[in-house]
Amino acid sequence: MGGNKLLATCALVVAGMCVLPLGLGIYPQHVLIVSLFYVMMAASWNLLAGYTGQVSFGHAAMAGIGAYTSGILAVKAGLHPWIGVCLGTALAAVLGFALGALCLKMGGIYLSLTTLAFSQILHIIIVNEYAITRGTMGLQVPGLMEEYSKITYYYIMLAAAVLVLAVLYWMIHSNLGLNFRAVQNDEAAAKSVGVRVLRVRVLAFTVASAMAGFAGGLYGHYLLLITPEIPSLDLQFKVLAMTVIGGMGSFLGPILGAFALNILEEYIRVYGEYHVLVFGSVALIVARFAPNGLIGLWRKFRPMKTRPAVG
Amino acid sequence: MALLEGRKVSKSFGGVQALSQVDFAVERGTIVGLIGPNGAGKTTLFNAVAGAFKPTSGRIVFDGADITGWPADAVCRLGMARTFQVTRPFAAMTCLENVMVAAVNRHPQKPRAFIESFAREKLSFVGLAEMAGSEARQLNVIQKKRLEMARALATEPRLLMLDEVLGGLNTQEISQAVDFIRSLRDRLGLTVLWIEHVMGAIMQAAERVIVLDQGRVLMAGTPSEVVNDPRVIQAYLGDG
User: Fold this and answer.
1) What ipTM does this complex have?
2) Domain span holding position A188
3) How many domains are there within chain A?
4) How far apart are CA A197 and CA A257, in angstroms?
């Protein structure tokens, strides 16, 4: 797609997203806001798992870092939520850098287990440090603005998501993106052509974690009640499912997946605990019949624009 | 001074001594063959030189710099590129992107348009221009070897290390490949260190040949010295 055509498409989609909630009630607006949070989570997790091959289970934990940092600073120190969100993003970036550096020599399952451990440790700390975090009761935090307004939150989350996606798009399509994908495809070969593999991996971890922290910070101030649900494995696996079902390693996949699954979840909520079953079934069906996700399906059935030369 | 020099390079994996006290030199502007029976340690020596792992002991000197234990990416930036015995393309990326990865790390400041045309040029140099848009996984083995060659050349090396690039080629293709490798030296001024099992090709193209056997240098010399040496014949054919 040419630069202008791409820009025009993006502008159209964003304009559509701006108009979309106007005719909707409070509840659909809420669903859209939550979806936008998941768009940021899935798209940034995709940078790690889909583009550099680092399947981290600590991404929800980073959202938790962002949410709790900002929330605690607002409650205990009276800091303005916007400053808190910035500090939460920064702390998530620092922890992402540290976690990425810790996992440098690891790949595959070891990296996943280490990040899983990080996530669980954080969860335990949050649940038990009742005096600071109010444990499972949840921490009541102030909103981003004086007067609560659903539609304003929607536009804030939309702007945040657009910002995150723009940064991701730029990274993926820059030289960095080539390096990311080279590392994911074959680390040894990437090194042999001069890719600074360690730097690339840590950078991806840092950026993705910062984005999760940013998303989590905003999300917390939207919910007004921060609970250990944010840095939980439930949320982590939901982000994973969205990315995989949408199409890991593609730019649009996680965005589609986040909307699709989050909206689907609302429809199947009536089945109570069984909604997990539906979720699992969807994941299974996609894994079996569309291993490249929704985006892969779409590409398969769309006439190809450029056919590979016959070799 | 030689472009590449190994001084008493040893490498052991657990109890297995893969390389012991290997001394060798590769002079600038020459094509040097590295031969030896299976398991002689040729690829191990490559890996130790190119930074895939650190030798247990000994030193590796490239253009006067001691690069022992340097990581592969740093070695590459210094001007050494390699291909792999079992090819390792970036399978899910297009051929063009494969070569662009090498190009952007050689020319990080250059604009995208330059990188792309630079990469295309390397692809057509190895005869893969039509495959630029195809994913590397779709290539056959021979095309993959060519792709690796283009990728290596895009790092603009001074020393090119080839690991069995002739496997699977017929006689005519072999002689074309030999001409191609010669032209790398003659036209681009590259120095080539080349592991190969196809003895005829090495004998045609190389000025010097290093023979490894059981992790040691059995001998080094001109191709005709090597083929006529009874030790080499014995290493290949075994004790009659």
Assistant:
1) 0.89
2) 25-231
3) 1
4) 29
